[in-house]
Design goal:
Helix content is 53%, strand content 7%. With 458 residues, the chain is an alpha/beta fold. Among the domains are: 132 residues, P-loop containing nucleotide triphosphate hydrolases (Rossmann fold), CATH 3.40.50.300; 93 residues, Zinc Finger, Delta Prime, domain 3, CATH 1.20.272.10. β3, α7 and β4 form a beta-alpha-beta unit. The chain is flat, with a radius of gyration of 33 Å. It starts with a helix and ends in an 8-residue tail after the last helix.
């Protein structure tokens, strides 16, 4: 009798389950997308179908099918399938799973597949506790993560697993998912008269942004909350679709890969002088809730690192916009974000401030040279030791410049600053050339030629 009640309870739970859970594919043939790893003849598909799976890590954005793929493996394997959620499980749960796996292997010669969802949430101690049992084959490990496993999973565990990257679903993939839902009688809405307009479907698919779960949740809300017409027809128009999924799903975890990949794309677009791309990536960050002060911090760094003296005003603009944003706040402060972004993207570029690090490497790796005597402080001991003797005061000479030795003897002929021929640095380069005396001009020309790329000489 209890079995009957259990079956009835399970059936009731299944009927009440969210659409995204009900529509999880049960077989590889039902699985949509990821043809690059699950297409016919691909390694992962062959391993699953032959039930010869080794330890793997499934890595990709939410809604791409990582957990679903693990369930398909559970349905097709003859091995025991044990599932843990890294958010809820601790070392005790890992030990219990491993002990049971040892018992099954010893008594019944039965393998155990251990699936760990959100494995990046395991700390190092938890991952270390799992590692030896993956190494000796007690369990076959399947990990699922939205974060780059090469950063979030210990190296030893990654090296003993095959990493498969799942990608965001294409719009054609999401169209197939929606059509499957509308046609399925058992789990979807095939038993209802649903008319989903092309405009409504396109909106749902576009706004889901590659996330099947987001699409299914919106589709379920649209259908379940729309009153049927007299003939039973449930018509999902564009207006209904827009109400059901009002905001585009944007993958952006401030501590995860999407955060770092997006800011990387933003900085590289600024460096590449593409104002449209820079605005786009910055807008994605703001839309996803990134703190604008973090964006300004990165632009302040960029202004000195990637523009520098090619346009000294860039740093002033970045600082002014950051201060104006602190004064104005959102939403009007978005104008200051935009102005700063556009100025930096369209400014001439130079990374000559990196010459500081050349000098720093010299300081840390080379023997320090003596400070030339004329450069020493003569205010305290000029009479006793002659410090500062021979120093030539530049302001006393024509054009406020006089050639003299500033580097230690052993460093004569060493150059760190490499003036470019871009923006304001062209003026600096010309000024340095002008300052050099006739006797030193030949040496200075060698210096400039050394840092001039072939084909760019004037």
């Amino acid at each position: 009798m209890s079995d009957i009640f259990d079956e009835q309870g399970e059936a009731l739970r299944s009927a009440r389950a969210p659409l995204a859970d009900r529509m999880r594919p049960a077989t590889l043939d039902e699985f949509v997308g990821q043809e690059h790893i699950l297409g016919h003849g691909k390694l992962l598909r062959r391993a699953i179908e032959a039930d010869r799976l080794t330890s793997v890590i499934l890595f990709g954005p939410p809604g791409t099918g990582k957990t679903t793929l693990a369930r398909i493996i559970a349905n097709t394997t003859s091995a025991r399938f044990v599932s843990l959620n890294a958010v809820l499980a601790g070392i005790k749960d890992i030990r219990e799973a491993v002990n049971e796996a040892k018992s099954q292997l010893k008594l019944h010669q039965r393998r155990t597949i251990l699936f760990v969802d959100e494995v990046h949430r395991f700390n190092k101690a938890q991952q270390d506790a799992l590692l030896p049992h993956v190494e000796n084959g007690t369990v076959t490990f399947i990990g699922a993560t939205t974060e780059n496993p090469y950063f979030e999973v210990i190296k030893a565990l990654v090296s003993r697993s095959r990493v498969f990257e799942l990608k965001s679903l294409s719009e054609s993939d999401l169209h197939r998912v929606a059509q499957f839902v509308l046609a399925d009688f058992g789990r979807g809405y095939g038993n209802l008269k649903v008319e989903l307009t092309d405009e409504a479907l396109d909106h749902l698919v576009s706004t889901a942004n590659g996330d099947a779960r987001s699409l299914l949740n919106a589709l379920e809300l649209a259908i379940e909350t729309t009153e049927p017409q007299a003939d039973g027809l449930i018509k999902i128009s564009l207006d209904v679709a827009e109400d059901s999924i009002q905001q585009r799903a944007v993958l952006y975890d401030k501590e995860g890969d999407a955060h770092f990949d997006t800011i990387s794309a933003f900085i590289k677009s600024l460096r590449g002088s593409d104002p449209d791309a820079a605005l786009y990536w910055m807008s994605r960050m703001v839309y996803a809730g990134e703190n604008p002060r973090y964006i300004f911090r990165r632009m302040l760094i960029f202004a000195a690192e990637d523009i520098g003296l090619a346009d000294p005003r860039a740093l002033m603009v970045a600082e002014s916009c950051a201060r104006a944003f602190d004064y104005v706040g959102l939403p009007e402060g978005q104008f200051h974000l935009a102005e700063c972004c556009l100025y930096l993207a369209t400014a001439p570029k130079s990374n000559t401030t990196l010459s500081y690090f050349d000098a720093l490497r010299h300081v840390t790796s080379e023997q320090s040279g003596d400070i030339p005597n004329p450069l020493k402080d003569g205010n305290r001991d000029s009479k006793g030791l002659g410090h500062g003797e021979g120093y030539m005061y530049p302001h006393a000479y024509h054009n406020h410049y006089v050639p003299q030795q500033y580097l230690p003897d052993a460093m004569q002929g060493t150059f760190f600053y490499q003036p470019s021929d871009v923006g304001y640095e062209r003026t600096i380069r010309e000024r340095l050339e002008y300052w050099e005396s006739r006797d030193e001009k030949e040496e200075f020309s060698k210096r400039i030629k050394r840092y001039t790329k072939p084909g760019t000489e004037e």
